[in-house]
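not sure who needs this but someone in the group chat was asking about Sister chromatid cohesion protein Dcc1 from Cladonia borealis so here u go. i didnt clean anything up, its just raw.
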Amino acid sequence: MSTQDESGIPFEICKDQQQLRLLELPPSLLELITSKRISNLTLKSSLPGLPGQPAPNAVLCTNSQTYQVRQVQSSNSVFVLQPSEAQSADDSIPSTNLSAIAQCTATLELAPIVPAAIGFLKQHLPVYGGPQSITELTTRTPLAEKFSKESLLWNAPFSVGEFDNACKELCIFEEEDQLWIPTDSMLAGVWKSIIYAATMRSVDLGNSFDIAAFSSTVEEDGYPLTLYKAVLARLSSGDADLMEGYTALSSAIVVPWLGAILLEKQSTSAEGVLASDFMRCWQDQLPDSWRTYATLNALKGKFSEPVRSRITFDESGGNAPASSTPAKGDGKNTRKWHEKFKNARR
């Protein structure tokens, strides 16, 4: 009776090697691929960088996560094997062979990263300071070099979700088939239009309100409606849906956002601005019920104190000493709303 040879499994290296590359998947990506959820996988690379910068790396993007593709060299001999059956000369039981069809000296590793999406957008998008910005860009930039959301997204080395979050953070809007980053003055101006319209109509911004109700005021003040909607998207509470035509603003988002914008706008010198003057300006541009939230604690990590009693915008993480931090507002508004905005809207 014939028996199989238990001495081992025959092994051979094929003469014609296939060009294969091993791909190492992190657990999160492996779970996504093997699950029943539908997710797009996109292989992308960054736009060419500035002269002297290294060549862009390839990244793999899901709907919300970015993975950097890195080639890792190996000093070990790694073979890709393929089983096969071989008939013996005496017609006994076929034996199983292993054939090395490829040798991989390097592995592609996918590592999750947090891309610098905001820095990328600031590098590639123009700044909007008013209608003159569109005129200037049109006269000096060929149409092919303009970036709409769709065209820039294809060249952005990060996922759609991270792209949208960065656009929301910067209040990026599209006008004349071009994405724009608004200046602090533009953002402060749009907010002033919003708070003025809300005050004149006795609208509580913390509750759901009709977005279209403020549109005429924003347009009369010279701001694009696309910028207005971008600001609302940035300041809306988590459960608001602008697609339905209504939204509600979150005081926890609006207060520090507005404070940082006003401080950066007023920090025109190294000495900064008087803390008391800044606090008064900040509180005066908030609804009465939100004024008490305007404290320097809300701007933690956004300012420094170069001179006593003066502060300046600083995102390096410096904070004013507690001993010189102005006391928070008492919430009392000594000026009427119509008086407050009378000069502001001239």
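also The longest helix spans residues 184-200. if thats useful
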